[in-house]
Specification:
This protein is mainly α and about 130 residues long. Helix 2 packs across helix 4, helix 3 crosses helix 5 and helix 4 runs antiparallel to helix 5. It is elongated, with a radius of gyration of 20 Å. It is found in: Membrane.
Length: about 130
């Protein structure tokens, strides 16, 4: 970016409210990620050495299934915002910027939907 644009105090870089929302959301999903990591470690240790039937029984527990689905959603939201920041920082071409933002949103949504549907399948139908 041109140095004269950066040094001009009247330059506009986007919505301050949107940036604040992304900042807060990124921090909240990061903090929730710590709690979800503790749960995930418990889940992996619990399922270590378990056979398929026991694994299906544990994942089929409504509490475990819901928390695991929330973990997937949390990670996808955190990933979407993080990648959005990278795209905004490094992609300057407006057409390429729009395309990469669209692909980022689609990819994160697809991962979240596939993950939640996989958990639902295991929890509901084994």
């Amino acid at each position: 970016m041109d140095k004269s644009v950066i040094s001009n105090p009247k330059s506009h870089y986007g919505s301050g409210k949107l940036a604040t929302r992304h900042f807060i959301t990124q921090r909240l999903t990061g903090a929730l990620g710590i709690a979800f990591t503790i749960f995930f470690i418990w889940l992996v240790v619990r399922l270590a050495g378990a056979d398929r039937a026991e694994m299906l029984a544990v994942i089929g527990n409504p509490f475990v299934a819901i928390v695991t689905a929330l973990l997937v959603i949390n990670v996808c939201v955190h990933m979407r915002i993080g990648m959005q920041e990278v795209i905004e920082d490094y992609i300057d071409d407006p057409r390429l910027h729009s395309l990469t933002m669209l692909l980022n949103n689609f990819f994160c949504l697809a991962i979240a939907v596939i993950g939640v549907l996989a958990i639902a399948k295991i929890a509901l139908w084994g």
